[in-house]
Amino acid sequence: MRTTNQAPHSAGELFRLVRTGQARSRADLARLTGLSPSTVALRVDELVTHGYLEETGHGESRGGRRPRALGVRANESVIAGVDLGESHATIALLDRRGEIVASAIEDVTLLDGVRSVVEQVWESTRRLAEQHDGVRVEGIAMSLPGPIDARTSRLLAPMRMPGWNGVDVGEVLGSVTQLPFLIDNDANAMAVGEYVERGGTHEQLVFVKAGSGIGCGIVVEGAVYRGFRGVAGDISHVPLHDAPAVSCSCGRVGCLDVVASGTAIVDALKDAGEPIDSLEEVLGLAQNAHPKATGLLREAGARTGEVLATIINFFNPQALIVGGRLATADAFVAGIRQALYTLCLPMSTDALEIEVSRAGALAGARGVGWELLESVLEPARIDAALRAV
Predict the structure, then answer these.
(1) What is the domain-level CATH number for residue 53?
(2) DSSP of 128-193, one letter per residue?
(3) DSSP readout, 28-77?
């Protein structure tokens, strides 16, 4: 997902070619870079010696002796990806191949405050690493349910996160863990997680996170599109012209989040006299064909689709992926489909893939962990590490 300006003879650049699947043998590396086989052998041996690459058997022969296949070595270190929600934190440990080797879900409450939550999450992460053969955590990344200023890692007026506004969560995370860190918005992280889960085959992808809140992440040519300050794709505060006059934290009324999110649906059912307290209960009612719950879910999907229609017409992505707890409700997804096919140009939707997330509950943790892994394994960082040995 990243590009590099490293010289082709760099060991880090050779590692990148193997990691991205462009090269599977020393012969491939020599062919792609134009380097002599002896120079490639020296660089590869260095990467193998220091635990970045490994010989994984024999590759496909092109007429001569079968070459030895190269692959990324998983190593004994991991990157921790944490997807922080309103009431829980999903933790995933990724090896250097980007594969999830362990995961866990921990109960948290954002009302405990930034540092307390970060400390709790870090303790849970260390415990998970110890349980998984005592692997070493070499970096930690966290996604947050609110807008993030991409230049400072500060939260910008998040909803349902009292005491977090304006806080540089990255600074807190770094001071608590003393590790390389990364902070991102949860919808962006989920979009990356979905991109990785699908093998990088969707170069233009829109991911909608629909749970207690609603957010959106956009992938363009394999990388998150963030905009100038990092809030591109934040659809939660788009006002709907025919929405009920529900007040939003932004000071306006009828914003998408307060009329179509899981929280809004729960509130609407309560107002209708249903004795429920959670989105899970709403989803359970819908599974049992409860007419009011099913109708509200479909209506919420249609309102979400109304906002997404502008994005689809403007951006013309290859895929629209719906994730989060509301994505498990057929009525919600059907509402989105109906709105898109009604409001979008046929050329924007005739080949559009509208699907439910394949990455599921681990999308955010995997995505934000992958983002940090990409940074940790940049060619320039690898070359610097090898020079320091």
Answers:
(1) 1.10.10.10
(2) HHHHTTTPEEEEEEEEESS-EETTTTEE-S-TT-TT-TT-BHHHHHHHHH-S-EEEEEHHHHHHHH
(3) HHHHHH---HHHHHHHHHHHHHTTSEEEEEE---SSSSPPEEEEE---SE
Residue 65: pLDDT band with limits 50, 70, 90? low
Phi-psi region of 329 (alpha: psi -120 to 50; beta: other; left: phi over 0): beta
CATH number at residue 91: 3.30.420.40
CB 372 within 8 A of CB 139: yes
Residue 382 maps to a domain: no
Residue 41 lies in a domain: yes
CA distance 334 to 349: 15
- 383 domain residue, yes or no: no
pTM comes to: 0.91
Whether 207 and 353 share a structural domain: yes
Using 50, 70 and 90 to split pLDDT, how confident is the model at 325?
very high
- Host domain of residue 68: 11-73
H/E segment holding residue 375: helix 363-376
